[in-house]
Structure formats: C-alpha cells, structure tokens
Amino acid sequence: MGEGDYGLDLPTVERIAGEIASVHAMGVQVSVVVGGGNIFRGVSPAASNMDRSSADYMGMLATVINALALQSIIEKVGVQTRVQSAIPMATVCEPYIRRKAVRHMEKGRVVIFAAGTGNPFFTTDTAAALRAVEIGCDAILKGTQVDGVYSDDPKNVKDAERYDSLTYREVLSRDLKVMDTSAIALARDNQVPILVFSLHNPGAFADVVTGIGKFTTIS
Predict the structure, then answer these.
(1) Is the pLDDT of residue 6 over 90?
(2) What are the structural domains of the chain?
C-alpha cells in the first residue's frame, strides 16, 4: 500500500520482492503468505453491510491479486516463483497442494500462498501458521508495522513495553495482538517459533534470518 490509502504501491512491492530474493539467494527455502488489507480497505465501507462470509471471501480474492503482483516482481529479479491458491482458480495460479508446494521449494522456487485458508472466519495469520505446519517450516517470520511485539500499540501508547522474547502462553494470556489466537495456538501445538519484525526496515528480513536483526521471538 505504501503511502497510499489503499491499492498497490509498486516501489513497496519491489522492495519486498527484493528482500525475499536476497534471503532466497542465501540458500534459504522461502514460502510467503500474503494478506489483502491494502486492497480490501478500498471496498471495506461497502463490505460492512455484507454478511461476514461474503466479506471474508472478498478479502481472500484480494490476497490473490497481491500474490500475483508479488510473483511478477520477484520473477523480474530472477527468482522462480509459484502461486498456490486455497480457492482453486486454474487460469491464474495453481491450487494449493501440499506435496507440490514442498517440491517447488526443494527445486529452489519461492511459493506464495494465496486466499488464506480458503475458509471464512480465518485470517491470513492462521493461514501462515497452517501452511508452516503442513510443509514443515522451521519458523514463521511475520513482517508487520513495528519491530517486534509490544504490550500496547506503540503508535498510540508512547511507553508501551517492547519484548525481545515471549512464550506462546504469555502471548495468549496477555492478549497481545500480534497474531490471532488460533494462529498462536497452532504454532504452539506444533512447536513452530514465530519471529516478529518490521517490514519497513530495509534488509530486515535477511537480518532476522541470520539472527542479527531486531525482532521478537515467540517460542
């Protein structure tokens, strides 16, 4: 979204694609789950009068648009990419097939998972945790608006406490809004650590992967 109110900001997409390509070049297998808030924000006033399921499906379709845009830009920098959608749409991308996703990653391709879980009432946070567990990821890296997990929104609360590390139980018991409770619980039950970092800091993705960046670890 960049500095806009909604939609796609090409320089921002190019920067994120570059971050993914730089980590891929390190020999790390990368899969990506994209959200759709930047597009859905433009239609959210209309969606507020719709039933929740319809609005959620609209949001899932927005993630497919983002996934295709990200795929196009990543491939321009020379990295092979595949988009897999939880809602089948064979004309534009592959359906989600776990074994195929794993095979793509083994062949050095970046896999972008679109359309969330394919079900309403579940966010892309839950989709990320689900895909991470399914394909055996070592960790979930959540690129967000701030450089870790805080006790409150640091944009609104100046003295919000920042955490370097937390347990799954602490995140749930303190009701920290870093990810949905279902995503945290899924990661906890399958022992997949979550690393939360800022998507706005150039090079942050690579720094987190190498362990030198500023992030919060949930484990």
Answers:
(1) no
(2) 1-137 (3.40.1160.10), 138-219 (3.40.1160.10)
Q: Strands 194-198, 140-144: parallel, antiparallel or unpaired by DSSP?
A: parallel
Crossing angle of helices 124-135 and 98-106, rounded to 10°: 70
Q: Which two tokens stand for residue 15?
A: 């920067």
Q: What are phi and psi of 83, to 5 degrees?
A: -105, 130
3-state secondary structure of 82: strand
Q: How many residues does the chain have?
A: 219
Please give the mean pLDDT across all residues of the chain: 94
Average of per-residue pLDDT across 28-53: 89
Return all residues near 7 (Cβ < 8 A) that are at least 6 apart. Answer: 1, 38, 39, 42
DSSP state of 158: T
